[in-house]
Amino acid sequence: MKPRDENKINEIYKATLNLVKATGLAGITMQMVAKEAGIATGTLYIYFKNKEALINALFDVCIRSSASTFFSNYDPEQPFKIGFHTIWLNIVQRRVAHFNESIFIEQCFHSPFIDEESKTRLRKMFEPLLHLIERGKKEHLIKDIDTIWLLGFMVGTINEIAKRAMYYHLKLTGEILEANFQLCWDGIKA
């Protein structure tokens, strides 16, 4: 049996991300992915048994990669606002630098393709952020509302910043990032 070619898998993932950005998750087919990746459709099926398997595998790769970046330089012992700022900035920068991946992840959340096992792994990877938000509420630094709504507000603002930067070709200077962070902070602070 021939070993899996990691370069080929990366090309399949890259092709999938490009297609999702161009046509949406529901609109892509295995044939489209194979063509975009420059491989035969039969070869694609050697690596992934169907579209759902491909989407779940790519989602897992994207989430793992994102999570490692989101918590870079984050120290749970730091004061709440510093920790929140670190994670917020990491997420914005990741979403802009890996925009196709961000579009893919967002569409996956609104699709039937992501299985419960993937969702459970996702929650586990993002526990540091959940713990930070809970700590902020306990310290009376942020609004005491359900964490799901606080995260929705935070992620929603981040997604819009990334989209506007990419679609309108705007440079996110330090000044612009800090102004947007302050808007987000003002929205959640107690």
UniProtKB/TrEMBL annotation:
The keyword Nucleotide-binding does not apply. It comes from Niastella yeongjuensis. It comes from the Bacteria. Keywords: DNA-binding. The keyword DNA-binding applies. Residues 29-48 bind DNA. Residues 6-66 form the HTH tetR-type domain. One of its GO terms (molecular function) is DNA binding. This is HTH tetR-type domain-containing protein. The lineage of its organism: Bacteria, Pseudomonadati, Bacteroidota, Chitinophagia, Chitinophagales. Signal peptide: none annotated.
